[in-house]
Amino acid sequence: MNTQYLYVASYTYPHFAPGAVKVSGAKGISVYKIEDNELRLIQVIETPNPSFITTNSDKSMLYCVNELGIDDSSLDGRVSAFRIDSESGELSFVNSQLTNGNWPCHCEVSANGRQLLVANYGSGNFISVHINSDGSLGQLADQHYNAPEGCRVELNRQSSAHPHMILSSPSGEHVFGVDLGNDQINTWSLGESGQLTPATVPVATVASGSGPRHMVFSPNSQCAYVLNELSSSVDTYQFHSERASLLWLQSLSLLPVNSYHSRPDFDPNNPGKVPEGSNTGGEICIDSSGRYLYATNRGMNSIVTYSIDQTTGQLTAIDWISTEGKIPRGMAIEPMGKHLYVGNQDSDSIVRIAINGESGRLSEASKLVTPCAVPTDFAFV
Known about the structure:
It contains no helices and 28 strands. It has strands spanning 4-10, 28-35, 38-46, 52-55, 61-66, 78-84, 91-98, 104-109, 115-120, 125-131, 137-145, 163-168, 174-179, 184-190, 196-205, 212-217, 223-228, 233-240, 245-253, 280-286, 292-298, 302-308, 315-322, 328-333, 339-344, 349-354, 368-371, 375-380. The strands form 7 sheets. A 4-stranded antiparallel sheet has the order 3-2-1-28, with no helix packed on it. A 4-stranded antiparallel sheet has the order 4-5-6-7, with no helix packed on it. Strand 2 (28-35) and strand 3 form a beta hairpin. The two termini are 13 Å apart. The relative contact order is 0.12.
């Protein structure tokens, strides 16, 4: 049986996670060996604010954003590369590059493996960075800026452009940029040299004030699902791959009908804070069969499970389960598809929950809680 490793991203000391009221105690990326149904910490490699991580296709390299920005003008946003030891699973630092922006919050290796795609939340630009043949990061390849003033519907969160995710379509032919500040999703074709060229349908507009955060595609490429942070909702789109267009089909709340949680009154001095009794969306993921979709609620502190109609792609909410902590930010399904991992940002814990392969439901009785400072994202090798 192959050994499996879990890599966990965190906001680090002396920084605060968005909305947090205490300084983070984390130091960098934590590496866990998954054995005997437990998580055993084997390494913490120091790097500042690695809030999101990703790996290349052969799992030889791990990349992270270093979410640094205008809070400290001497620390511009960066991305970093680490080599993964194939025997021990441990990381070794390779190099870093500037992102030509602030607060980078998401990255993904392009389908061709030649670029690292990055979303700069603070400065409003999406970029592509060359990946060299040895896996190290090269120079900036291209970038795209959205309207800098944002849509201004929610003044405390949308007063400027805020790219929150950049990802490839299933075929790898197109790249999508999710902009929370402008309520829109950009679409480009990606050139061999990393150029971001507007697609035939270059922009999909999201409902006013929704604040789109993250996006996933169905395994059959027929649908895309967008998690909206500010409105605590998920949108279903029919995806037309030849034109890279998104046709809206459905919007659903992330919350139960009887929930008392409401949209936050965002604090201009701490805009990421989720006050008691309010809720925002955190993360979204889909199982490999394309039958079930999961999303996190920050405030209700839960995971909602949706079943996916295999004909229409539309969603039906079937269950909510507690994350046993506060502000579940990141979430991922392990490669075997048997467990879902979620990071409780404000209560410093990772929770692993078994997935019922037949019903898609998460098991209340199976929860494994592991202490970890400010966990925000996961990768598996």
